[in-house]
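Lab notebook, design round three. We kept the backbone fixed and only want residue identities now. Task for the bench partner: fill in a sequence for the structure below.
Input structure tokens:
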């Protein structure tokens, strides 16, 4: 893995590279001399010199990001005699302060610029003469002071030099001194942020952030005071480069466009982020512990990922945090997870943060924070807390969808263990409330607010707006409704934390909101893999809304409702397309309600069942009785909404009892039984089968029949296949048949023609027992085969009368054999009819799933099935399948 600013060994350089670094050393020596950072000793100083306090110097050779050579002369600061007595702390800007600066600059439309100071430590203002710091000069520096080659020379440091432990502190103090002299105001919240205000209006006109020797400057273009302050700063320090609108700052790429400021780390990711080298065989040993070298590589990868996640990738923060927790007991599985995350980050290297140009008055911007927790998802059952915070127009708290500028986020281990999820949620909410306070204070101070003790909370409450979002219903109720001791929480620690958080929120007038899990933006910072919300947030150009749901409907339930709605829409769309296709192809439209009633009446059905999308979402099927009620009877008597699981005992809803068998993959019932022979407990109906079918229930003497058209929505190609020979049917009462306008069923029913009353019907399917004629092709050998099969099945009234299914595509097997088939066992043929006796199973025993050799009906995308009614054993004739 590549290393940043890796030191180059002089001995390993080629001749051309040495010449390149000679030039870099010459530039460094020139800067040392021009800054007067060292001087020669006076004769009196050499007499009293304590050589044990003289520090050594060395050259550090590296290459810049551009690849050019860089040479730096440094002091070995650990040899400094006053090492423990000097102030060494030097601040750098926080991520929150830097991104608050960018958010304010984007809102006001300030021009963004950046400057890099050359040899910054050598340009410090304070003198180090009194500290008595001496160094042994290297031969290149000693030669500039007149020393002979090989002669040892001692020099005295007069300014901060690279390598001294307090050099960064001296540089920071020098920068602060210069900025304060040019009317900049240092903020209390971040010692590296400075503001410039108009003398008359006290409006914010410029901002500066300093990161060691890099300056991030933005201001109102053309403003006299800002331009003068910038010129004085450029005159005081020597800048190596000065860029605007598009530049690198603190490892991030900043770009300014008319709609705001963008920050990304694409170059950083592509250059420094690499996977842990691991062979395929090693990667399969998931439970094996990592070696010391692999653990070192894992730490390096996670360090690089951590910088990316903490600066521009909040959706990766949780995974990085959880992986860091697992380093002590890391296995190959841990390394595989890290490599997987590396690949994911590299795929989306161009992901960026956006700070929008709102162009709003600063008091119209609100602070919004989402806080969440995950219970026991870390090693040793520790919990994870996280929050996401940013700025957005105040209308977001009224339910409007607005652009949000993210300025802070965090994913970390909960400070303490908790008994339950409420304890973890309280810790997250406490941290989130504190983030609300911080961001409001930063925004207030950047825009000229005076931070005074005793008045800060009052000023924030009256000049800023904040909102804290949570998805824990229990904690929200405890905060807003429960006035009991410690808000009614079982854990005293959690109770005290919540009491303090509520009191602080009330003082600041912070809006407390409950949101469902689908609207919790911080969910991705507490659980690995839950990045969907944050990814949607970025895809939607950082737009989000906060809607307070008075019904407190959970996110899972809302997700379920949305899926049910989508399913209903898909079903309705499919049925509409299928109906249009059926009309176009001259096919029966069984999904049309009027047509279904028409067919049910023609088929002599006693009841009809419909599965509508709105009823299906409730788990109901509407059953309507077609024969046992008068037309004037109310609908609530003639039709019942039957739960899908109770379809097997539908008669009980109409005053009777009957049992049916479960639906198979391609058949209405596994078998048809007599009421007297029915099992005591009916099987459940397959809901998936009911969903994709219209179901017709037909009472037949001592049995039941269900006619089902299976039309799976894979495509709309008209493919119907005949199933398992023909289906038996008990003849109707001729009188009732005439009343329905259907031809009577008799020995010649296979060739019977429909009556005149059917001539105007939309369907010409005919009654069960006749061959459908619509779409028929007289010259089609397949149709002729079907007619032949029907004519061979003629019999008396008490004998079985066979029907066939319409076929629009050649089948995988012949529709019927013209020669006498060989006798085979009951398991040989398709199972479409009743069982018969043990030695007379006409179609192979129980069930409708065909199991003939070489036959595959389970893969048929559309199958028309007409199972037969149960026939008393005394009246059963030998079926065609008995051989």
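Proposed sequence:
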């Amino acid at each position: 893995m590549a290393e940043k600013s890796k030191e180059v060994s002089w001995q390993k350089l080629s001749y051309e590279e040495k010449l390149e670094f000679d030039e870099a050393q010459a530039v460094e020596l020139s800067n040392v001399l021009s800054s007067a950072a060292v001087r020669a000793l006076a004769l009196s100083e050499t007499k009293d010199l304590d050589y044990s306090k003289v520090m050594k110097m060395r050259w550090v050779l590296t290459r810049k990001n551009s690849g050019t050579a860089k040479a730096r002369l440094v002091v070995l600061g650990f040899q400094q005699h006053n090492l423990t007595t000097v102030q060494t702390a030097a601040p750098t800007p926080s991520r929150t302060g830097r991104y608050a600066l960018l958010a304010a600059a984007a809102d006001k439309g300030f021009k963004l610029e950046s400057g890099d100071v050359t040899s910054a430590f050598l340009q410090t203002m304070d003198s180090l003469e009194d500290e008595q710091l001496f160094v042994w000069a290297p031969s290149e520096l000693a030669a500039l002071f007149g020393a002979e080659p090989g002669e040892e020379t001692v020099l005295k440091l007069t300014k901060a030099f690279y390598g001294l432990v307090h050099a960064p502190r001296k540089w920071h103090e020098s920068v602060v001194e210069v900025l304060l002299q040019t009317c900049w105001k240092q903020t209390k919240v971040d010692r590296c942020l400075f503001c410039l205000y108009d003398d008359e209006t006290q409006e914010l006109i410029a901002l500066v952030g300093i990161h060691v020797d890099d300056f991030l400057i933005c201001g109102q273009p053309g403003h006299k005071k800002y331009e003068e302050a910038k010129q004085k700063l450029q005159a005081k320090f020597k800048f190596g480069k000065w860029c605007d609108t598009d530049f690198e700052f603190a490892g991030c790429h900043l770009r300014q466009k008319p709609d705001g400021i963008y920050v990304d780390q694409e170059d950083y990711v592509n250059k420094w982020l690499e996977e842990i080298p691991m062979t395929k065989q090693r990667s399969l040993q998931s439970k094996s512990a990592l070696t010391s070298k692999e653990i070192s590589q894992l730490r390096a990868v996670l360090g690089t990922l951590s910088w990316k996640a903490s600066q521009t990738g909040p959706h990766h923060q949780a995974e990085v945090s959880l992986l860091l927790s697992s380093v002590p007991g890391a296995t190959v599985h841990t390394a595989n997870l890290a490599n997987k995350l590396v690949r994911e980050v590299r795929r989306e290297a161009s992901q960026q943060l956006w700070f929008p140009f709102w162009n709003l008055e600063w008091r119209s911007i609100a602070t919004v924070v989402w806080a969440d927790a995950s219970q026991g998802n870390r090693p040793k059952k520790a919990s994870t807390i996280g929050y996401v915070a940013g700025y957005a127009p105040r209308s977001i708290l009224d339910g409007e969808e607005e652009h949000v500028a993210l300025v802070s986020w965090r994913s970390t281990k909960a400070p303490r263990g908790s008994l339950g999820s409420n304890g973890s949620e309280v810790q997250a909410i406490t941290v989130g409330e504190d983030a609300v306070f911080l961001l409001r204070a930063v925004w207030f101070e950047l825009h000229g607010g005076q931070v005074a003790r005793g008045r800060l909370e009052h000023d924030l409450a009256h000049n800023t707006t904040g909102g804290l979002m949570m998805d824990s219903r229990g904690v929200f109720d405890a905060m807003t409704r429960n006035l009991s001791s410690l808000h009614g929480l079982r854990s005293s620690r959690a109770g005290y934390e919540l009491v303090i958080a509520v009191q602080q929120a009330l003082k600041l007038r912070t809006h407390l909101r409950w949101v469902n899990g689908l609207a919790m933006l911080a969910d991705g910072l507490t659980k690995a893999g839950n990045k969907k919300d944050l990814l949607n947030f970025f895809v939607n150009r950082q737009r989000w809304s906060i809607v307070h749901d008075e019904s407190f409907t959970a996110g899972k339930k809302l997700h379920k409702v949305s899926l049910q709605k989508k399913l209903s829409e898909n079903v309705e769309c499919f049925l509409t397309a299928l109906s249009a296709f059926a009309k176009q192809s001259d096919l029966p439209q069984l999904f049309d309600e009027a047509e279904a009633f028409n067919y049910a009446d023609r088929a002599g059905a006693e009841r009809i069942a419909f599965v509508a999308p709105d009823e299906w979402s409730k788990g109901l099927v509407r059953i309507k009785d077609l024969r046992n009620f008068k037309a004037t009877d109310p609908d609530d008597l003639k039709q019942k909404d039957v739960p899908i699981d109770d379809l097997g005992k539908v008669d009980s809803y109409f005053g009777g009892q009957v049992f049916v068998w479960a639906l198979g993959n391609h058949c209405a019932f596994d078998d048809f039984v007599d009421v007297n022979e029915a099992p005591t407990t009916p099987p459940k109906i397959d809901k998936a089968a009911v969903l994709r079918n219209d179901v017709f229930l037909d009472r037949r003497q001592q049995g039941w029949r269900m006619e089902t058209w299976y039309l799976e929505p894979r495509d709309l190609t008209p493919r119907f296949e005949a199933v398992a020979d023909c289906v038996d049917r008990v003849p109707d009462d001729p009188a009732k048949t005439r009343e329905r306008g259907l031809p009577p069923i008799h020995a010649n029913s296979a060739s019977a023609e429909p009556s005149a009353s059917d001539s105007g019907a939309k369907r010409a399917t005919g009654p069960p027992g006749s061959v459908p004629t619509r779409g028929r092709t007289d010259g089609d050998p397949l149709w002729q085969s079907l007619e032949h099969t029907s004519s061979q099945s003629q019999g008396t009234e008490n004998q079985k009368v066979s029907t066939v299914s319409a076929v629009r595509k050649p089948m995988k097997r012949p529709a019927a054999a013209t020669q006498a088939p060989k006798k085979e066992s009951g398991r040989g043929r398709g199972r479409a009819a009743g069982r018969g006796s043990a030695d007379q199973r006409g179609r192979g025993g129980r069930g409708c799933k065909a199991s003939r050799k070489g036959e595959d009906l389970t893969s048929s995308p559309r199958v028309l099935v007409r199972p037969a009614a149960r026939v008393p054993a005394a009246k059963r004739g030998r079926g065609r399948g008995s051989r």
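Keep this in mind before ordering anything: Confidence is low (pLDDT under 50) at residues 657-883.
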